[in-house]
Design a protein that fits this description.
The protein has about 475 residues and is mostly helical. It is built from 22 helices and 6 strands.
């Protein structure tokens, strides 16, 4: 039975695998340097035994743990472990990998080996990784499937990304409403195996239209002679293939669901959405939002090549450079003012910094509200007013404190007043921008997390410099 470990428990396994890999490389180097047949034979035997030890250790891992180990290894070590896997184990692990790591391993794998791995994927898993497989590998893998499974893969691939249809499974357990509990249980027992994460059986009529569901507990404990229609739950939660997984995730969370039926426009049962697919979607979305707020265009393999990493980070770095240069032009407008009072150059970063911090807090709250659908058109103005008032209160509190400190430090009361006023105004602007930018991106059909922090930084920096130096020119 394979090991199942928590993330914290993987470190000893990772150390053991890394040690075997290092030993393998050392033996390879020795074998290349030997010049006598006897010593070379000994080294080759040791090398083969070390490879067997590595395969034995890896074979004991659960596919999810193996995927985690692969992602924790540097690129060369990862490639060595990947090449040592049997096709069946590689197929089990490939569906558990992060998309970027999976894509890099598939791209580096010979087509013949990749065909062997793809041939061992079940239809649901093949559909899951289809977008990353080379077209000829996918075509060959589909040829080996039954006609119904080929149709399933084609339909799943055609569904939009992040739709229920793209992540559902066709592996369902259904019984007729006219059956008795005894006959329904007999039907289930005749199956070679039950679907994964089966918590309830769906109830359909003679036309395969969903009419209800019944829990396994009700089936197991109900009176054998009762008809299914008398004990089933009517009007179960159901999704359509075109529904958003994000919406489905909120329904799963609200009602503590494990699996939900998927129906077509005529309400015929076509599949099942399971909690593991929803959790995977939530994790991927959270990663994407986190990276997007940092200005990264997409997920990045920590051990990717330098060129790939640099290219992934380049776009928003360029945008940030342009906006930062534009912000410095506001400073250039007040060069004469800064020359007259050098303290301004020391204090103005404080105004921009505290504004940026306030704006980022607001952006994070707004993006979270959008993700959980807590913000509607009717509540937008209320949210904007509330955040502006919060920015005003924080500006009065912290701007007053900084103003007093600046006035005492530089023995210039008017400078302290200007500092306070500039911070108050910049925090109000930062709060407003923190609401408007993500909402504007979302309504323009863009990811609200993507680049919001870059645009926010430009606004708070430029307005912070402009307000502080402008007030200084007017009153000093």
């Amino acid at each position: 039975m394979p090991d199942r470990r928590t993330t914290a428990d993987l470190q000893p396994t990772l150390d053991e695998v890394t040690g075997l890999l290092q030993h393998h490389r050392a033996l390879e180097a020795l074998a290349h340097r030997q010049d006598t047949p006897q010593r070379m034979l000994v080294e080759q035997l040791q090398l083969r035994q070390n490879a067997v030890d590595l395969q034995r250790r890896i074979r004991a891992l659960h596919p999810a743990d193996l995927a985690a180990i692969l992602q924790l290894l540097p690129y060369d070590d990862r490639a060595m472990v990947w090449q040592s896997l049997e096709a069946r184990q590689a197929a089990d692990a490939v569906v558990e990998l992060d998309a970027v790591v999976r894509a890099s391993l598939i791209a580096a794998t010979e087509r013949s080996r990749m065909r062997e791995i793809a041939a061992r994927l079940d239809p649901d898993d093949l559909a899951w990784v289809a977008s990353e497989l080379p077209s000829e590998v996918l075509r060959d893998a589909m040829r080996s499937l039954a006609a119904s499974d080929r149709q399933l893969v084609r339909e799943t691939v055609e569904y939009p990304e992040n739709s229920v249809g793209a992540v559902m499974t066709a592996d369902v357990a259904a019984v007729r409403e006219s059956e008795t509990i005894a006959s329904a249980l007999a039907d289930l027992r005749r199956r070679s195996e039950l679907p994964r994460q089966l918590d309830r059986v769906f109830v359909v009529d003679a036309r395969n239209v969903l009419v209800g569901s019944i829990t396994l507990q009700a089936l197991a404990l109900g009176q054998q002679g009762l008809q299914i229609s008398s004990v089933m739950e009517i009007d179960p939660v159901a999704f359509k293939p075109g529904d958003s997984v994000a919406q489905a995730a909120r329904v799963f969370e609200r009602y503590d669901l494990v699996s939900v039926p998927v129906v077509n426009d005529r309400y015929k049962l076509v599949g099942r959405l399971m909690i593991d697919a929803v959790v995977d979607f939530i994790r991927v979305t959270a990663d994407k939002d986190t990276l997007g707020m940092a200005g990264l265009r997409g997920a990045e393999d920590l051990f990717a090549s330098v060129w790939q990493s640099a290219r992934n980070r380049s776009l928003w770095l360029f945008v940030n450079l342009v906006t930062a240069f534009a912000a410095t032009r506001f400073i250039g407008l007040f060069e004469s003012t800064i020359r007259e009072l050098v303290a301004l150059a020391t204090l103005m970063p404080i105004v921009a910094s505290i504004g940026g911090n306030t704006g980022n807090q607001t952006v994070a709250l707004v993006i979270r509200g959008l993700a959980f659908e807590q913000i509607s058109r009717n509540s937008t103005m209320h949210l904007l007013r509330k955040e502006i008032i919060v920015g005003l209160l924080n500006g009065v509190m912290w701007g007053g404190l900084v103003g007093v400190f600046a006035g005492i430090t530089y023995k210039h009361a008017r400078l302290g007043g200007i500092m306070t006023t500039a911070i108050i105004l910049n925090l109000v602007i930062a709060a407003a921008v923190g609401v408007i930018v993500p909402l504007g991106l979302q309504r323009a059909g863009r990811d609200p997390a993507q680049g919001a922090s870059v645009l926010l930084t430009f606004m708070t920096d430029s307005m912070g410099f402009f307000l502080f130096l402008g007030l200084a020119r007017l009153f000093l």
